[in-house]
Amino acid sequence: MKYYKQIKAALIVAFITLICLWLYGCSSFTQTDSKKSQLIKTAVFKNVKNN
Questions:
Q1: HSE-up of residue 26 (Cα within 13 Å, Cβ side)
Q2: What are phi and psi of 10, to 5 degrees?
Q3: 3-state class of 13 per DSSP?
Q4: Which residues contact 40 (CB under 8 A, 6 or more apart)?
Q5: Is 3 helix (H, G, I), strand (E, B) or coil?
Q6: Contact assessment for residue 20 and residue 14, using Cβ atoms and an 8 Å cutoff
Q7: Rounded Cα distance, 18 and 7, in Å
Q8: Phi and psi of 50, rounded to 5°?
Q9: pLDDT tens digits, residue range 27-48?
């Protein structure tokens, strides 16, 4: 019981750190590179001439 406040504070800091790392790590799973065989939207409309 002597170190209860210190242990509680350390657990809270560790929990917040784990949540931040988990949220930061999720962005790498949701980002994808465009495939080489697919057209990019800017390339499709790049050479359009207005008449």
A1: 5
A2: -65, -40
A3: helix
A4: 34
A5: coil
A6: no
A7: 16
A8: -90, 125
A9: 666 666 666 666 666 666 666 6
- Amino acid at position 29, single letter: F
Buried b (16+ CB within 10 A) or exposed e, 28-46: eeeeeeeeeeeeeeeeeee
The average confidence (pLDDT) of the chain is 76
- Euclidean distance between CA atoms 51 and 40, whole angstroms: 24
- Beta strands (DSSP E) in 1-51 are none
- Asked if residues 34 and 40 have their Cβ atoms less than 8 Å apart, the reply is yes
Under a CB-based contact definition with an 8 Å cutoff, are residues 3 and 10 in contact? no
* Structure tokens, 31: 């980002």
Alpha carbon distance 49, 26 (integer Å): 41
Q: What is the pTM of this model?
A: 0.47
